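Reviewers of the previous submission asked for a worked example of the structure-prediction workflow described in the proposal, so we include one complete record here. The input consisted solely of the amino acid sequence. No template or homolog information was supplied to the procedure at any stage.
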Amino acid sequence: MNTPSFEYLPHPADVRFTAHGTTLEETFEQAAYAMFGVIIQNDTLEPEMSVDIELESEGLENLLYDYLSELLYLFEVEEIVFGRFRVDSIEKTGSTYILKGRAFGESIDIERHNFETEVKAVTYHQLKVEKEDEGYRAHVIVDT
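From that input alone, the workflow returned the following structure tokens.
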């Protein structure tokens, strides 16, 4: 796999996507890009601030859920819209996984930012992280 990526898939009510990467870290980054791509056209954002992300969860699916939910929380409560994501490491310790990374964005500006679709929550429905021959794939559905 040359380039990590994501793609949106059909879903009758919500938004469904898969994220691909050669590593778990790239896959989680691409999932974040996909989720924020639903919310806003994030390629126009200026990353003027950054937020450290550190999470610990039981299992990869829970870690992905927690990671995307944390980003959504920061968007809704701290009013930060993110345009770039960096997952530095995902390490397994016993039965838990620890994610360390950073999200880059800017404060929400209603005058400048055109929001596409409201993402209410990340769901566990069909949430999956899979190892493939060329890397990893994550399947995610977000409630809109």
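The chain is about 25% helix and 45% strand. We consider this example representative of the routine output the project will generate in years two and three.
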